[in-house]
Each structure stands twice: as structure tokens, then as C-alpha cells.
Amino acid sequence: MRKFLSDLIQDLSSLPKASVVIIVGNFINRLGHFVMPFLALYLSRKGYSFTDSGLALATHGAGLLIAAFLGGYFADSIGRKNTILISLIGNGVSILALGCMDHLSGILICSGLVGLTSGMYPPAANALIADLVPESQRSTAYASVRLAVNAGFACGAAMAGFLMKGPLWVLFVGDALTSLVYAVIVAALLPSLGAHRQTSASIFKLVYDWKITFVDVARNPAYLRLLFSLLPIILVFMQIFSTLGVSIKKMGLDESYFGLLLAFNGGLIITLEIIITRLVKPIRKLWVMALGFLLIGAGAAGFAWSETMSHLLLCIGILTFGEMLAFPTAMAYSAKLAPEKMRGRYMGLGTVNWSIGSLVAPLVGLWLLETFGSVSWVACGVLGIIAATVILWPLPFAYPYSKIQSPLFSNFIRFTPGEKRSFRFRCVS
Predict the structure, then answer these.
(1) Phi first, then psi: what are they for 48, rounded to 5°?
(2) Which CA distances in Å does 165 have to 49, 254, 257?
């Protein structure tokens, strides 16, 4: 145990200073992440239907989807730091605009802008972490980022749950201020790394670069499988932020319980995620992710039978353990599979799944809840099984023009046009 703690402390203390800026900034930003997790409750209080709330969250997801492509492209073209600054400043302004809207059309537009601006941040930040941190430490680095995010989110969610009882404009001002404060920190402390050459950006270059990226991803089935396995589990995970709050209200429980559940989720991650990430480091990433996917699905499915706060806490606990296993491992695995020159765009594709989840999950989840009750939570359990099956499904050995990784034998086999079939072996998981 002493050696384990010593190695963990050494990993954390040896992280580059620029990555520490990202970690601290994420904590500050998430401390005021009030609006989007509580948007469905906010709109419900203003008299909008569940369907209207789902539509507003879906436009946020549509903005995230567009931002995934823009953020990945800008991260590779104008630089990680510039992309992060554009995202943070734009997000602060759009959050304030959202708080000023009363008509549904204005809410939808501003919600989409919030998604567009906030969604440009993750590809740039994740690519920067991959640039700075050696492969052996990436799982710890990404877990540290998630720890900071969840520490801020846990404190912020608990505060927001009680702030919902007072004037609602406080939520929007607090959310916007934390984004702008983080932008100041980035401008002052985050270096513009000379190793990542910054070039001019244009619509034609954007289309061309993404075309090249899609061709490369099509020849990387291991990365495609990761993307396809993450999509169903993200659809499950996004129900927490779109459906759970309204579901708790339908149970007749106090709205503040939702904030407490989010705080409990963040508290577990703060105390345990880095330790768990370190413990599972020797285990194959595919199996770690599969177990995490199953636990996320099982925890979400349990909400269908929850009637008390203790039941909700048990379910969110199971889901959180799955989250701690799956997501840091998936981020490190994604960084390993991404070519350095396309790292921003690969990370952008990774956030496309989150964007699709933000777009689809609220519409489908809230509609199912309004129409069929708890059926939406049962479906989440099925999606967890599907995700685990996809990540463990064996890739074929003979797939022309592709890079193939077998999850059973850890072989790396490549066939290219015009070449005789030959075998090259490398462990990629």
C-alpha cells in the first residue's frame, strides 16, 4: 500500500505545469456549472412542458455536435490555447443571454449557442493533455482532470440545488462568471506551445482536414469500436442530467435531492477515482471499460424501482463506480489510438458521442418518462449491456486496407493495397 501511494503521489507531482492549469481551471469552471444540469427543472418551473424542456436540451446537444468538429479542427489549426479561450469567453456570454430569455424560441437559440461554445473546449483541452503528458501517466492525468471537474461540480451542484429556491438569475450570473474567470487564467498562465504549429483556418481547410481525418479513422477499426461502444453508454449517462431531476420531482421528492445526488456522485469521484484508475492500470483497458459500462447501465436501470432517497443513493453509487472505471480509461485509450498530427480532430470525434447524447437523450428520455414512466430507465440497462458487448467484440483478422487490433490476442495486423498480406504484431490495449 505504501508503494502504491508513493507511486500515485509521484505520478501526480510529475504532471506538467500546463496540465495543472487545466486541472485547476476545470475546478473553477465547474464550481459554477449551474445552468444546464438544472435547465429542465428551471423550464418546468417557468411553465414549460417536459417536451419543451427536452427540446431545449436537444438544441444544446446540437450545438455540442457542431462544436465537436469546430473544436477539434481549431485545436489543430489555430492552437489549443486560442480554442480554449474562444470557448470560455463565448460560453460566458451565451449563458448570460440564456438567462435573459423568456420566449421558447429565444431559449432554444441561446441553449444551442451555449452548447456550441462549451463544446469547443473538450477537444482542445484533451488534446493538450495528450500533448503534454507521457502515455504511462495519461490515465492519471485524465482522472485528475475529472477529479477537478467533479470536485467543482459536486460543490456547485449542491449549491445550485438550494439556489433554485431563490432568484434564478443568480444561477446564470454565477455560471457565466466562472467561465470568464477561467478564461483569464488561461490567458495569463497557459503557454502557447511552440511544438504545435499554429496555422490559418478557413472553411476549405476545415473540410479538407476533416476529410483526411475520416479516411484515417475508417482505417482504424479499434478506434471505431471505441466510438461505437461509447455512444450507447453516453446516452445512458446523459439521462442523469436530463431526466433524473424531473423523475425525482415525479416521485414527489424535494427538488434539492437532485443536487445532493449530483454532489454524492462528485464526492465519490473526488475521493476514489484516481485510486481506482491506478488500481486497474495493469488490467486490459477493454475489460475495464466493459465492466464500467455494465455498472453504469445497472445503476441507471435501478432508478426505475427507486422510491426513496436511499434507493437513489445506491443507484447513483453503482453508476458512479462504473463511470470511474470506464471514462478515464476510455480517454487514455483514445489518446493512444490517435495520431499526433490529428489528435485534436480525433478528440473532437470523441466528443461527437457526447454531443449526440446531449441531442438525443433529453428528447427520448423525457418523452419516454412523460409517456411510459420508468421505461426509460429500464432501457438504460439494456444500453449498458450493448456497450459492453461492442467494446469486447472481436475484430476480424483479415480486413483489407485497415489497421486491426484483436482484443483476444492483442495483435496488430496491417494490410495495405498492393502488398502481400503480412503480419506485424504490437500490443495496442
Answers:
(1) -80, 150
(2) 20, 11, 13
